[in-house]
Write a structure and sequence with these properties.
single chain, about 325 residues, alpha/beta, Quinone Oxidoreductase, Chain A, domain 1, Rossmann fold, 7-stranded mixed beta sheet, 6-stranded parallel beta sheet, NADP, ADH-like_C, Probable quinone oxidoreductase, GroES-like_sf
Length: about 325
Amino acid sequence: MGGSGNRRAKGGEIRVKNKAIGLNFIDVYYRKGVYKAATIPFIPGMEAVGVVTSVGPGLTGRKVGDLVAYAGNPMGSYAEEQILPAEKVVPLPSTMYPVVAAAVISKGMTAQFLVRRCFRNYHMTMVEPRHEVLVHAAAGGVGSLLCQWANALGATVIGTVSTKEKAAQAKDDGCHHVIMYKEEDFVTRVNEITSGKGVDVVYDSVGKDTFQGSLACLKIRGYMVSFGQSSGTPDPLPLSALAAKSLFLTRPTLMHYNLTREELLETVGELFPCITSGVLRVRINRTYPLSQAAQAHADLEGRKTLNLLPNVRMGYTADK
């Protein structure tokens, strides 16, 4: 069972029987202690889709049988059932399969706030047609969605990948230029592609291995968005290092961009239509039973998933 045991939902809470559970690199960070869980032991997992099985007293707007999704806190989605704050879950459109939604909600909401709300350059505009964007791990779960979304907004998208297979996917996802970082220096190639100007914004989820190069790729008053560290935590950076080009640097998290119910609904209000309309394509090439969560983590860390939005599910088929 895991999760909530037999505890009943209290006021403001709902009990959810999970149908599909998302797998994310943040789960690895918590398991390894890179991010510190509030309590030990803990149940990992930051996103899931399930069916409401009970509703706390006095709660309106939710009913038993509703299909809902959530991403972010409280952690603990690696369980058959959960008790969640009702304000943290969103209704799932009837046109979306649970496995698709579980695989994409956290990554998709991350992509949404990164391209639509996090990057605000000195003209106070979000990503738009005149911008040049660099996306590291362009075939990754979030990277794939970032490339698709930035391309749909008209930006010129440059992506870095490690293999020819991933390069083909990045091209398919709207990358105008794909850099094989194991074969060529990405800073040199970005300089060539941008005629020495640099890019407006870098989306870097890799961390230590790319951080300094990412800063070098930016144009004057460029925007560095460091939102992950799959290769390790970047080395400390003196503030004066940003002065050479008057750079902006941010280390955002999804939770801080969905502090209110209104922000959450705004985010999924953009995300879900982009998926159902085909603007964003969700690829799923692998699923795991919950009992194989350890193997799922090993595959994710070993880059064996091709980052096609893998998810952990528990014996349910997508059409149920």
